[in-house]
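Thread: "does anyone have the structure for this chain?"

Original post by V.I.:
We have the sequence but no experimental structure in hand. Need at least a predicted one for the grant figures.
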Amino acid sequence: MGKKAIETVFFGNYFLGVLAIALSLETSFQLALPFNSLSWYAALFSAVTVYYTYAYRQAGPLMAPVNPRTEWYRQNAQRIRGSQAFLSVLLLGSLLILFYRNIDRIGLIAPEAWIIIGLAVFAAVAYYGKLPFFNLRQFTLTKPLTIGFCWAVAVSIMPLVVLEVEKGETEIPRLLTGWLFLKNWMFCSVNAVLFDVKDYADDSNRQLKTFVVKYGIRFTISSIIIPMITLGTVSFIIFATYRSFSLFQILINLIPFVLTFYIALNITQKKRSILYYLVLIDGMLLVKAACGILGAVLKQSV
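Reply from O.Q.:
Generated one for you, C-alpha cells below.
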C-alpha cells in the first residue's frame, strides 16, 4: 500500500471506523452472540469516521500547517467534504433501515440502556465543546476517560442493544458484558493518554489541560499509564481464572496489554511522525480485537 493510500486510511479516520467494527465483532465473539446486521456495521463505521473527521474538516487554506495531518486535510478538503457527505447519507440510510425493520421492537430497549447511550451521546457532543455550558476537553481527567467511555459504549453496549432489537429477546451474560465494557473503557482510555504523550508539544502550546501537559510526560507514563495497564492485566487474569480460560487463551489475550506496556515505556525514546503513531497506537486496538476474537474461538472449540 502506497504512502498516499496509507495517509488516506489513517488521516481520513477510515481506520477508526474499521476498528469500531473489529471491536464490535470481538464483543459478539466473546459473548458467543449472533452478529449484528450489515446496516448496523455500516452505521457504526460511518458514525465513527464522520465524528473524528469533523475536528479536522475545517482546516482551510488559510491555516498554517501545524502537522502533516492538518496539512493533509488542507490538500484534500474537497475530497473530505465529499466523503463526509457520502458517509452522512450512509449513516442516515442505515439508521432508517434499522428503524423501519425493527420499529415494533424498539420498546425492548431497557431504560438503563437508554441512559448509558444518552450519556455517551452527551459526552461526545460535550467533548467538541458544542454545549455552551460544558466542554469536557477542558478537564484533565475527563478527556481520555470520555474518549474511552464513548468507545466502550459504541463497541460493547450498542451492539447488544441493536442485537436485542433485531433478534428479539436475547440471553446476554450480564457479568461478562460488564467486564468487557470496563476492559474496553480502560484500554481505550490508555490509548487516548498515549496520544496525549505524542501530542505534548502541540497541546502545551494550545493550553489543553491533558495529563501530560499538567503533570509531565514521565509522571503520566509512570503514575497513570503503567498503573492502568497493570490494573487491566491483573483484572483480566482474575476474570480469566474465574471463567476457566486455558493458559493459551490467557496468553493470547495478554498480548495487547504487553505491547501497550512496551509502547508506553518507549514512546519518548525517538521522535516519530504522526502517521507512525496513528498506525502504532490505534493498531493496538486492532490487535486487541484480533486477540479477543481468537481467544473466544479457541474457547468455543474446546
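V.I.: this helps a lot. Residues 274-301 form the longest helix (28 residues).
O.Q.: and Residues 3-301 form one domain.
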